[in-house]
Amino acid sequence: SDPGLVERARAAKAALGDRVFVLGHHYQRDEVIEFADVTGDSFKLAQQAAARPDAEFIVFCGVHFMAESADILTTPDQQVVLPDLAAGCSMADMAVLGQVEDCWDALVELGIAGTTVPVTYMNSSADIKGFVGRNGGVVCTSSNAKRALDWAFERGEKVLFLPDQHLGRNTAVLEMGLTLDDCVLYDPHKKNGGLTAEQLTNAKMILWRGHCSVHGRFTLENVQEVRRQRPDVNVLVHPECRHEVVQAADYVGSTEYIIRALDAAEPGSSWAIGTELNLVRRLANAHPDKEVMFLEKTVCYCSTMNRIDLPHLVWSLEELVAGRVPNQITVDADTSRHARTALDRMLALP
Ligand code: 13P
Ligand code: SF4
């Protein structure tokens, strides 16, 4: 990266000192990760956002829903900055509050809302988290989805899982003993999700029709191909991958889990990894004694994560030095209160 920009980032961070706390998700570019005070998966970053109540500014190098969650979990005096406002998440955009309310109304009409617990993946907007908090539900991330579903099934007979069908299905079927027949797919663009009253009533898991466009690109053929080429390969994927990919993999887990698995791996071992490319490249560089491959042939970055680059980070930090707060992310008080309830339930999971 540009040495001038590196110098400017260092100088701005030094000028701000403890007033700023920079968080970086594992999918961020190397040039950005270099300036993160802490890196993590979505769960760790949610915990860390609340860990420095003395820092005036939280610069969130990640995507919009993460910055919103940080705003919800920090004190009212702290200001959260997202270096590029275009850093959204296509999966989070697949669940819009009005659609979720329509779905809930359909469950009320059928008399099954009272026994349904809504669970939303962290990758959702603050107003979806608020809806879930208001209706007795919980947030989860890829590192605690099973515990969140256990929590939900202790409180209800069925779960409405938002917005990632794959995380919901993979956790329910591969970790909790539910069957594929226990799950139905609710399409927000169709009346009653495109489902009959009987299907909705009989389902244990109502899965929202959302997915991650990055992880959706990995296929069962990718897994089979890499096993043909390297019979001793360990296939390690993120739970946002399709069901058949996760089923065929050897290990599945969050970004933080993937990093720890590589740290613990034997020298000389071979790994094919199904997650975002910035992270896989960083792992390959960090483990020259192991063979680390990307599960797919084509380049597969998360384009919105990649919006945050060194020029945007430098601009944000220099604005803060100049006494201005750029790209501040704020969630309104009412939404924030209910979303906080759902996030606190997650943070309190055993
Ligand atoms: P985790 O870092 O929690 O595994 O999440 C992956 C992801 O897609 C974030 O957008
Ligand atoms: Fe969203 Fe997928 Fe990108 Fe994560 S990797 S931010 S889920 S689009």
TrEMBL record:
Keywords: 4Fe-4S, Cytoplasm, Iron, Iron-sulfur, Metal-binding, Pyridine nucleotide biosynthesis, Transferase. It is an enzyme of class 2 (transferase). One of its GO terms (biological process) is 'de novo' NAD+ biosynthetic process from L-aspartate. Iminosuccinate binds at H25, S42, Y121, M122, N123, S142, H238, P239, E240, T255. Binds 1 [4Fe-4S] cluster per subunit. Its EC number is 2.5.1.72. Pathway: Cofactor biosynthesis; NAD(+) biosynthesis; quinolinate from iminoaspartate: step 1/1. GO terms for molecular function: 4 iron, 4 sulfur cluster binding; metal ion binding; quinolinate synthetase A activity. Catalyzes the condensation of iminoaspartate with dihydroxyacetone phosphate to form quinolinate. Belongs to the quinolinate synthase family. Type 3 subfamily. This is Quinolinate synthase. It comes from Longispora fulva.
